[in-house]
Description:
Order of helices and strands: EHEEHEEEEEHHHEEEEE
Strand content: 25-35%
Bound molecules: biotin
Distance between the termini: 34 Å
Shape: globular
Number of strands: 13
Number of helices: 5
Amino acid sequence: MIQPTYLYYEEIDSTNNECKRRIADGTASDGLVISAGTQTAGRGRSGHGWTSRPGTSIATSMVFFPKGIGADVIPRVTLLASMAVAEAVEQCSGLSCAIKWPNDVLLDSRKICGILTEMEAERNTPKWVVVGIGVNVHEKNFASDIRDKATSIDLALSRQAEREKTAPLRVHCQEITEQIWKSFAAFYDRFEKAGDLSGVLDNYNARLINIGKTVRVLDPLGAYEGLSGGIDREGRLLVEREDGSVQKVDSGEVSVRGLYGYV
Ligand code: BTN
């Protein structure tokens, strides 16, 4: 099983970049975790940036060197990371997290985290993988364009405290970070042994917010609606169309929208 070892920077360009520099110079061990208080050039998916104010969020990345699994299945590691974030946030805050397929972790139906998985492979053999995770922890204000889609652990705790008329719990980035990687190592171990997601399916599907709901699949070949089931062992979302046929939706090809609001 991966044994995480931790390094912390007050400020860095990007924790994913630092992992990759250490892989390149040979100083990255299996399970090395780089975390930072703030990133000056945080990176998101599809070449987007990832910004957060200093001290408000988790920025953490892990290096590992896969054994015995193909590069083609590595994208599924992002689903494992979303499960690890959900589990860690629940353990450290007592809040319940849901997952919007494929890897959005939600509190109060809003997104709290972003995950960027990078790898280098030769043919179908992965040489290294870096999983980078950003979690909104203490952020209280979001830009108006994402306010109805994003939230933080503190905001969700405040809402809960208001409802229950109690004082909000205080959570700590370091504790959550260590719990994320502990959970991730356990999920990854099951994934590596099985070669697919069969060992974590029940856990993932139990958190899936889309399940049993009508979703709109934005397929480039033509959008359609259907009833969402869970995921299969390849991480594909099973969507039943009106004619009874079941589509296996791949996250690389399409995106799925709930019909009402963000989820
Ligand atoms: C997304 O676009 O949703 C993915 C965002 C991933 C951000 C994290 S923060 C820690 C790690 N370092 C980076 O530069 N990016 C990832």
